[in-house]
Amino acid sequence: xxxxxxxxxxxxxxxxxxxxxxxxxxxxxxxxxxxxxxxxxxxxxxxxxxxxxxxxxxxxxxxxxxxxxxxxxxxxxxxxxxxxxxxxxxxxxxxxxxxxxxxxxxxxxxxxxxxxxxxxxxxxxxxxxxxxxxxxxxxxxxxxxxxxxxxxxxxxxxxxxxxxxxxxxxxxxxxxxxxxxxxx
Length: 184
Fold this sequence. Notes:
This protein is an alpha/beta fold. It folds into 2 domains: 4-117, Rossmann fold; 148-182. The protein is built from 8 helices and 5 strands, in the order E-H-E-H-E-H-H-E-E-H-H-H-H. The protein has a 5-stranded mixed sheet with strand order 2-1-3-4-5, sandwiched between helices. Strand 4 (89-92) and strand 5 form a beta hairpin. Helix 4 (73-86) packs across helix 5 (102-135) and helix 7 (164-171) crosses helix 8. The radius of gyration is 26 Å and the shape is elongated.
């Protein structure tokens, strides 16, 4: 049996949720409503997260407008993909997107394809950037915590009875890093 979840968000405490709530109730009077007063730019949206945790296959998520759900196109596409992976249908009232229909499902599929394309482009750009940097002699990754001379000094300190903690404090690095450097 499918359940309907509604997500309603306004940017500030001063704004009213009434417009969205009325539209959702008119479209579906038995929806579980999750309301939030938070900026769309905020990554901290506990009510959205709470709703996402409860979703299961054949459920429906309904929003008044797309921009109420996603902080950005990338965020919106991620959420729509999450719904798709869970087998959850999605409805946006203002944009008239409804994945319970063939046309809505087609739009959903196009959005998923665009998301996959964007991920592929990011990977491609990253690889090209790494290749270019390597050609210029730059090596990726985090800089070494200790250079070869410091590693030798640390080994000598250890041989003279200094603890890993003392060595770590001397070089201002983590004890685990000292241990890793000394066991190479």
